[in-house]
Amino acid sequence: MKPFNTITTLDEFTIQQTRLFPKATGGLSGILRDIGIACKLINKKVNKAGLVGILGARGTENVQGEEQMKLDVYADDIMIRVLKSSADCAGIASEENDDFVAFDDEYSKNAKYVVLFDPLDGSSNIDVNASIGTIFAIYRRESELGTAVQESDFLQNGSKLMAAGYVIYGSSTMMVYGTKGGVNGFTLDPSIGEFCLSHPDMMVPEDGKIYSVNQGNTEKYTDGLKNYLQHCMRNDDTKKSYTHRYIGSMVADMHRTLIKGGIFFYPADSANENGKLRLQYECNPMSFLVEHAGGLSSDGEKSVLKIEPTELHQRVPIFIGSKNMVTELLSYL
Ligand code: AHM
Question: Mind listing the domains of the chain with CATH numbers?
């Protein structure tokens, strides 16, 4: 007979993981649980965005001069409020805010972790009902416990991440998070309101066929990249055939890459010398996930995780995905 409880919830899973490390205090599990709660609230709003007048632009810009959507601001607010009342988070930095926020109550000052996030990535897809997501990165703070967190706590390189992941608001809502121990995916079961383990030990296939890039920018790319794209488009019977897929929502494009294999890239081009995507909120968390699932990430020269951040809203070029596809692309640069 099947055991009664055949599901493993996110909470149960993180607690089981904590037990593997006798010295662990459970702080990381606590943060993951809190992010899960915030994302369930965001999910609720995303699901009925068209009904509750929350679609569309808000008429304001974020620190990077990008138009803010109403849902971006709602998601940012929820993440900050939930993490502020978390027992384990000492401060946050968000793509939507100019500066980091140090939570200044006595309890938070003694918390060990800081969280960086893009509250709603792919916002240009909100109004057309395509998948969007929340991306998060968790570091152990470097500043002294009992004091307010410093900017340096948020400028650690990606190899120091304790955990990172995303929640995709797609045909089903999923959280995928990784630690140095591996990457696991949890699907939200709306009937019980819990993220349940559905994709254990995720691994990026070593090779793939899908290349994912905004090909409309090709004229602005280097010759090396143009040659690579020509190579991908030259589908004949003598070599493997490539397929182009690009949603324009990093979480959705990366979720497909993680499951099916392939390569996603947002390179530097003649108009944007550092590309578009943000190191601390998008590139590092995705690179951490992909590398711990057996894939590769690169800024064109080295692993994204090795970049030393110099500012909170830094942009970097990124090439990420299946090991063989990233290696092949890099040989063209
Ligand atoms: P956003 O934070 O304003 O949503 O921008 C990030 C998004 C990524 O999700 C996506 O990969 C990229 O921007 C798409 O950019 P483009 O429209 O230039 O192809």
Answer: 10-199 (3.30.540.10), 210-332 (3.40.190.80)
